Amino acid sequence: MRKKLALICLLFLILFLVTNIGKPLIAKEKQQVIMLFVEGMSFHDLEQLKKFSTVDKWLDDAGAGALSIRTPGSRTAANGYLLMGSGGQALYSDKSGTGYHPYEALSSRETAGERAQELGSDQVQEVARSSIIFPGIFRLLADNREKPYSAQIGLLGTVLAANNIQIASYGNGDYEDTRQRHAVLFAMDQQGRVPTGDISTKSMELLRGYPYGIKTNYAYLLEKIN
Predict the structure, then answer these.
(1) Is 165 exposed, middle or buried (0-12, 13-18, 19+ CB in 10 A)?
(2) Which of 1, 16, 90, 152 has the fewest Cβ atoms within 10 Å of its own Cβ atom?
(3) Model's pTM, two decimal places?
């Protein structure tokens, strides 16, 4: 329950469509697909939200749907995001961790960017070009070898990049000292990288009266999306 409540901090994934020559369209013409994941939300919850005029108008301009998934393991949010981003079955393990910005400290001796370079073949400049990285992808790849399914972890992010479609991830489900950014599993490429986004504490505000004293920083996210 604690983890589910903390997920009121919304997770955004945005696909920025670009022209064939790789240059973004001008702001007036730029097309965006915004996917908003709300874990544990029911259709009853949605009907209650529609009673608010602003939400009802927003939903009229959007599409909403529920997702039933069959993972090779437990039906957790992490396994769900990993399955969608892989296009097929794949199993998440807690030991693989979560997503980080390269500058975030994993310990007193090491940042996430340094861990990614240590575990993989990424050069410093390649890590620096990624706004978000998932150092645990190497453990995921190892854990999903020799299984009765063929895992293609990071397939979505790789295919989008190959077609000059930029993907960004915003928001997190962090609470207390726990970092929880599972939506990165949906957005990352096969090297565990997301080119754009912000999953840091900037997307949150500390405010009394909210669950665990955390409120989504809507103004900041709107600025980033626009």
Answers:
(1) middle
(2) 1
(3) 0.78
Q: Whose structure tokens read 């919850």?
A: 45
Kindly state the average pLDDT of the residues 163-179.
87
Give the residue from 127, 135, 126, 129 showing the smallest Cα distance to 184: 135
Spatial neighbors of 159 by CB under 8 A, at least 6 apart, are: none
Q: Write the CA distances from 189 to 45, 118, 186, 209, 215, integer angstroms.
A: 33, 18, 9, 38, 29
CA-based nearest residue to 99, from 31, 154, 23: 154
Joined together, the tokens standing for residue 70 give 């069959």
> Which residues are paired to 216 by β-bridges?
204
Question: Whose CA is closest to 119, among 102, 135, 103?
Answer: 135
- Tell the residue number behind the tokens 């500390």, with chain if given: 206
Percent helix, percent strand, percent coil in the chain, to nearest 5: 35, 15, 50
Q: In sequence order, what DSSP letters do the residues of 67-128 get, joined into one string?
A: -----SS---HHHHHHHHHHTS-----GGG---B-TTSBSSSS-BHHHHHHHHS---HHHHH
Question: Residues 12, 171: contact at Cβ < 8 Å?
Answer: yes
> Which DSSP helix (H) or strand (E) runs through 110?
none
121: which 2 tokens? 């073949």
DSSP structure class, residue 32: E
Instruction: Give the range among 53-67, 94-108, 173-187, 205-219 with minimum mean pLDDT.
Output: 53-67
Residue 88 tokens, joined: 């097929």
